[in-house]
Specification:
single chain, Hemopexin, 7 helices
Length: about 240
């Protein structure tokens, strides 16, 4: 994690209006980032929109106004758990407790919830735990968070990614790089086993698990750039891992 973080949301996202700093309230439910650099913050039945960290005028608005169909008629009563773009189809999804909704296109106001939604999360997502947050990372993978643990999802096989150490993994160690005391969890046991492998075996595991993360980068630049960049990235991972 960057040394400058964590930061307060109301210090980063807002705008000056009449000499007053207008910002987003504390204790939001979740947030959603779209590729056009718009970030949506959700709380209760309302949401706020920022563009390049600047709060846009006219907010908050009702979630049902900006994302039609996400309302009580479709079993949504407020307080989302997660909002994310799924790497399997690049649609925006919303999760609240046991239910999930899909947006037909990633456009505010003109989009609406697909007709065959909501669905039960348990039927759509093969993760047994309650989802408390989700996001699509820069490697094109979707990550699901459940309290203090997280999963990386394989959108091709539509299942939790088969990797080592196995998922779920502790958020504090893998995302926040925090070290804690001894834990009896399966994630801690797997992590400990992983750290005792030889450098070469650890390198082979990471090369295998990360290759598919990067082999789609720069695909618009042609096959040669694709393979060259994949090769260079994996060599970089190899060198770093060997000296861990």
């Amino acid at each position: 994690m960057d040394n400058e973080y964590p930061k307060l949301i109301h210090d980063m996202f807002g705008r000056w209006e009449g000499g007053i700093w207008q910002t987003i309230p504390d204790r939001i439910d979740t947030a959603l980032t779209w590729p056009n650099q718009q970030i949506f913050f959700f709380k209760g039945k309302h949401y706020w929109k920022t563009n390049r960290f600047q709060l846009q005028a006219g907010y908050p608005r009702l979630i049902s106004d900006g994302f039609r169909g996400l309302d009580e008629h479709h079993f949504f009563t407020g307080h989302l758990n997660a909002a994310f773009i799924y790497s399997g189809d690049n649609h925006t999804y919303f999760i609240k407790d046991a239910m999930i909704w899909r947006l037909n296109k990633n456009v505010e106001f003109t989009s609406s919830i697909d007709n065959d939604y909501p669905q039960f999360v348990s039927r759509w997502l093969h993760i047994g735990e309650k989802i408390t947050s989700a996001l699509q990372w820069i490697n094109g993978r979707t990550y699901f968070f459940s309290y203090k643990s997280y999963y990386r999802y394989d959108h091709i096989k539509h299942q939790v990614d088969d990797s080592y150490p196995t998922y779920p993994r502790p958020i504090s160690e893998w995302w926040l790089q925090c070290k804690h005391g001894t834990s009896s969890s399966s994630e801690a046991i797997a992590t400990e086993a992983y750290t005792h492998l030889s450098r070469w075996k650890r390198t082979a595991i990471i090369l295998e698990s990360n290759y598919t993360d990067f082999d789609n980068f720069n695909h618009k630049n042609g096959q040669q750039d694709k393979y060259r960049n994949s090769f260079l990235i994996n060599i970089f991972i190899f060198v770093i891992t060997y000296y861990l």
